[in-house]
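Section 5.1 Outputs to date
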Amino acid sequence: MNYRYEIIIHWSDEDNIFVAEVPELPGCMAHGKDYDDALHNIKEAISLWIDTAKKYGDPIPKPKGRLMYA
């Protein structure tokens, strides 16, 4: 699936990994040993987040990206 949510990836010195977050999907986070691994994992996490929301009838936010900060 091709979701268009903003993904933020940053390095964590504390954990020695890349951390990926999707601010519009509360709690949707993943990590990886390198940038590409974190990106791959967060794409899976987005799908799982949305599948779980659908299963329980929870609302799924429409992607806004940087507009959510405006």
